[in-house]
From TrEMBL:
Function text: Catalyzes the reversible cyclization of carbamoyl aspartate to dihydroorotate.
EC class name: hydrolase
Gene3D superfamilies the UniProt entry points to: Metal-dependent hydrolases (3.20.20.140), Urease, subunit C, domain 1 (2.30.40.10)
Organism for this UniProt entry: Flaviramulus multivorans
Coiled coil regions, renumbered to chain: none
NCBIfam families: PRK09236.1, pyrC_multi
Protein name: Dihydroorotase
Protein family membership: Belongs to the metallo-dependent hydrolases superfamily. DHOase family. Class I DHOase subfamily.
Keywords: Hydrolase, Metal-binding
Amino acid sequence: MNQKITLIKNAKIVNEGTIFNGDVLIEGEYIKEISESISPKSADVFVLDAEGKYLLPGAIDDQVHFREPGLTHKANIETESRAAIAGGITSFIEMPNTNPQTTTVEKLEEKFEIAAQTSFANYSFMFGGTNDNLDEILKLDVNQVAGLKLFLGSSTGNMLVDDPEVLEKIFKSTSMVISVHCEDEGTIKKNLKEHIDKFGDDIPIKYHPIIRSEEACYLSSSKAIELAEKTGARLHVFHLSTGKETNLFTNKIPLKDKKITAEVCIHHLWFSDEDYDKKGTFIKWNPAVKTEKDRDQLWKALLDDRIDVIATDHAPHTIDEKKNVYTNAPSGGPLVQHALPAMLEMYHKGKISLEKIVEKMCHNPAILFQVARRGYIKEGYFADLVLVDLNNPWTVIKENTLYKCGWSPFEGTTFKSRITHTFLNGSLVYQNSKFSNIKSAKRLTFNR
């Protein structure tokens, strides 16, 4: 359904720290008007009655791995962006560790071309830094690319940046957000060797957070922050997993003025090491899911604004790959379809408000990456909007899981809330579990 003019009536609008009853008029790609009551001006207006539902800005996921090019047996931009739309995520920023890696401007543009043809959601990509591609980094147009991604641990291929001189040069050379994966490789290698000596390759999964330990995370993230403070770089630390790391960040200044920011992912807020017995390698992530105490401290830092963003680190692998013994089972899992429902479940449990969910999943990624005209319900902004029914339970099963890999770490979980409608750039692209045939996705742009 592709009406040029849509009127959403009687919604509970969640935006900028408030919830209010109102109507939203969409003309073309944009939000034209927000008011307590808007009357349709002509018979051509498509009116959607949202009585009893909550209207949220579309979520912006700042960290996904959609596996294209080169790893498309696991996932691709088309399948995973479609799952994202069903989960209320309307924009994504995808990571550079594909095959080939996104470490040249040419390879970056090839990914943009794929997304322009196949993506269901708005898209941008991070550019990957290596020990030897500073010349390529300097060619980037800062208004056309989401940011720079550096692996300071747990990298694939040659993407581990472990030369201190190169690292400092990169930090000094760009005004873009530098997003980092922080785990100390030396610590992990030492811990892994000890466990292989004891167990062989079939290490019990419960030792994953001991191998990829708090020490490994803290050592790496504290060094990255020290370097950012020394060079004045704009640093964003991905997927915090330990309580100790949260003390490295501040809530004393507004996000727009922060030079050093942090993200937490859904799995580190939901699972703990007590879940390894039941879930096994299906909740093997890097950094590892750690203790209940770590999870509690991550929640505390999220709610007091030391942590700025909630993301997914969506990183699918096939079931067969995940069923391997510990040393051969890859880390990562699919999350974009279930991230917002999981956070809404936490709202039902009294852990977080709807306003705070919107702040961390919609507003703050837009502020942090300076995304142009998205992340809010505002007149003149793109109409990326999500309607949610907070009392429409459903259970995650294989048959309603949309990831190409065909599984979810949430399988068997019943969520109370359901995404009923997703609008993308003014078009209704998803309604009551059905997708329209409209491709309205756009390349994200940035105001820098």
